[in-house]
Design brief:
By secondary structure, the chain is mostly helical. It is built from twelve helices and two strands, in the order βααααααααααβαα. Helix 4 packs across helix 5 and helix 4 packs across helix 7. The N terminus and C terminus are likely disordered.
């Protein structure tokens, strides 16, 4: 993993991989190794993606006009990837619902958050997207880097998450570069102040909502109270400790000169592309609505 101060690599290609994953019943309700807390957090994350990624596309496309040709092409590829992600997680969420989970409360919460954001100027939505895209990219990095995060999971579900993680890393600079273009006339201090405040707000909501959403799903499995809290907090913050392990990368967002590609982790993409998960039952590339 090489460190650089350069922006998005000039030779980076953002490639939409139109994969279709299993539509039938999950292998078991607790598909993540029989663990209620692991199943809950991934289901809670997936519940946010159909609406959330449509919001990301909307926020970035609002500023596409006038962007340099390379960035305009990257925005187009980004929107295609996100549209496919929304489709596949919508299908995954239906599988979770068929297994007996009620995701309504989680989906209503994300719609509330997005409706609140949409009341602000479009550049605020872009800033929120930039912050959340950093979150998804550092989560994706950790997921691909450390196999323990998907250890014991249903194979098809794990393949879905690895595929999604790969593309989140690949397009991690698009929202940020769009933000830089949209705010190119802002003083540096104002740009940093806005992005820092938005990231802190987004982080608070992300941690609170995903935690409460996971606890709600655990409640649906009969695990509540101190037992639920201890299981979830241990899983997220101790072992395998996804949230603890992304803390350093999260802090980097606030440093002077930060750019998502300050850390070039394309080695994880190459490793994924060489894996069996990347080639398992691929679907042919098709046109996706809202892809351009």
């Amino acid at each position: 993993m090489a460190t650089t101060t350069l922006p998005t690599p000039a030779d980076l290609t953002i490639t939409p991989r139109d994969r279709k994953f299993e539509r039938g019943a999950l292998s078991q309700r607790l598909w993540h190794g029989g663990r209620v807390e692991a199943t809950a957090i991934y289901n809670a994350l997936s519940a946010t993606f159909p609406a959330g990624e449509a919001y990301f596309v909307e926020s970035v496309r609002a500023f596409r006009e006038g962007t340099p040709p390379k960035l305009a092409a990257e925005i187009k590829a980004f929107t295609t990837q996100e549209a496919i992600h929304s489709r596949e997680h919508d299908a995954f969420n239906r599988r979770a619902a068929d297994a007996g989970y009620d995701l309504t409360e989680l989906e209503e919460r994300i719609e509330y958050r997005l409706s609140f954001s949409r009341q602000r100027p479009p550049v605020v939505s872009l800033a929120a997207t930039m912050a959340l895209e950093h979150f998804t990219a550092i989560l994706a990095h950790q997921l691909l880097k450390n196999p323990s995060h998907l250890e014991g999971a249903d194979e098809e579900a794990a393949n879905l998450w690895r595929w999604h993680a790969c593309e989140e890393i690949e397009h991690k600079g698009v929202a940020y570069d769009t933000w830089l273009h949209a705010t190119r006339n802002w003083p540096r201090k104002k740009r940093w102040s806005v992005k820092a405040k938005v990231m802190l707000f987004v982080t608070r909501n992300f941690l609170v909502d995903r935690t409460l959403g996971s606890l709600e799903l655990m409640r649906q499995d009969g695990v509540t109270g101190l037992r639920a809290w201890s299981k979830l907090l241990w899983y997220l913050w101790v072992y395998p400790g996804m949230f603890r392990k992304i803390a350093g990368a999260w802090i980097h967002f606030f440093l002077p000169g930060f750019h998502p590609w300050s850390i070039d982790d394309r080695d994880l993409l190459r490793r994924y592309e060489a894996s069996a998960a990347a080639t398992a039952a691929p679907a042919p590339l098709k046109k996706v609505r809202n892809a351009s």
